[in-house]
Amino acid sequence: MTPHMTTRRAAALAAVAAMVVVGVQSGAATAAPGNARDGASVTRTPGASGARTAIDPNTASERTAAIKSAQSDASSTADAIGLGSQEKLIVRDVIKDADGTVHTRYERTYAGLRVLGGDLVTHTTGSGKLKSVTKANTARITVPSTTPEVRTAAGARKVIWAGSGKPVLAFETVRTGVQKDGTPSRRHVITDAATGRTLHSYEAIETGVGNSQYSGKVTLSTTASGSGFELTDGDRGGHKTYDLNQGESGTGALVTDDDDTWGDGTGGDRQTAAVDAHYGAAMTWDFYKSALGRSGIAGDGKAAYSRVHYGNAYVNAFWDDSCFCMTYGDGADNKSALTSLDVAGHEMSHGLTAATANLDYAGESGGLNEATSDILGTSVEFFADSSSDAGDYLIGEKIDINGDGTPLRYMDKPSKDGGSADYWSAGVGDLDVHYSSGVANHFFYLLSEGSGPKTINGVDYDSPTADGSTVTGIGRDKAVQIWYKALSAYMTSSTDYAAARTATEKAATDLYGAGSPELAAVDAAWSGVNVK
């Protein structure tokens, strides 16, 4: 039952609805593929695809104003949706659909304590009428006492844990260190404040891998500085690329050049990795803007930054939300930097996920988090349309970490990597997130291309289904629109595969209609991966 909306809240939401914030999502959601470019980058007009009308880069102030407006009336919203007297809402984001529907994303506090797993999204009409609320946890947030019964280590913060089941008073401790492959570790551990029992843990450093450093000859956006140039992209929020010089902390040195001609296309030249990282960041920014109507990772027109030459023989890349940055290793031979388009797109998309649904990096939600980065990373690769690295549904196909020329992951049949899940099962959430992601990767491939054998950009695929059904794809452009809409408007931190199906069904309905072939395809693709 929808609670009665107060007059004040309705007026406030109507005011918010009048603003175009992150981007307008239209029912005619199709994104144009990247233009052929003879080895050079092409400037694209935002919104040229007709998929979504992108906001101007200078309209980030409208987004800020919408968030401020929603926050000023957050207490009325809390009352309207039936929250308790000790609960407060903190606005994280506001987006508006073409039909005027406004989706406002909130974090929650209880008695001044952060509620982990308490995030929610309100969905209102343009006039301010509450349509529905999506909650990470539907349980009522209340605890008998906010006084702990056990002691904990210095530096732990007191929180309410609502990630699963009945909310309890808890401690959150962050343990730093190094993972087995040399990736930094910042593990969050949640313990019960009454018993000391570990309730949950997750890794905050989110990793991914891709192919080698070559994208052919590219055009870079750089900035003149003194008598030379620096890798600062003034066209895309001021994105900077730094050389860590094998360090593992800080930013290192901003990459500079005398004549604005960068690198030589080989791993023996230190600028080459920076070129690919800078170019990958630019293409990801352009893809977000053109296909998703999103201005930057957080939707606020501000850039992240990139760091190359991390550590010694480090064979990985990672996103760190605490620095809002991407970091790339040089590979086992220190000459094969992991700076390809799909890696850049993958890493920055971890940041996009953190800025939207903030999917917990563990269990089924962790698999959805990783899959989102694979989905958007491969979409960036298709968007860039590089003759040197054609778009495909293979992840890490040119690194050869396996030593036999095979990719790290296959979206058409994930189990081909030896560990990923093709279909959902009760134990899929127990897998490493890079393997549980297979279910969503497979769903996305089926939704985009359909089941059975086919050849795309010279790569052969043959995608099966769990029930032997035939799935007809709707095209990658529409599939991306549906996934992004679900991520930004309907998924929460605790979304699992069943909830992801619901979220994409709602997204397809919003974009294409309740009786649309696109919605039918979403249902068929989820059934094809055994998510009922």
From TrEMBL:
Keywords attached to this entry: Hydrolase, Metal-binding, Metalloprotease, Protease, Secreted, Signal, Zinc
Subcellular location: Secreted
SUPFAM superfamilies: Metalloproteases ('zincins'), catalytic domain (SSF55486)
Pfam families noted in UniProt: FTP, Peptidase_M4, Peptidase_M4_C
Domain Peptidase M4: 207-353
Residue stretches making up the FTP domain: 88-135
Chloroplast recorded as keyword: no
EC nos: 3.4.24.-
Residues making up the signal peptide according to the UniProt record: 1-31
Domain of life the protein comes from: Bacteria
Primary site of residence: secreted
The Peptidase M4 C-terminal domain, residue ranges: 357-531
Cofactor: Zn(2+)
Region listing for Disordered, in residue ranges: 30-55
Function as written in the Swiss-Prot or TrEMBL entry: Extracellular zinc metalloprotease.
The family this protein is said to belong to: Belongs to the peptidase M4 family.
Identification of the protein by name: Neutral metalloproteinase
Organism, scientific name: Streptomyces sp. 900116325
Source lineage: Bacteria, Bacillati, Actinomycetota, Actinomycetes, Kitasatosporales
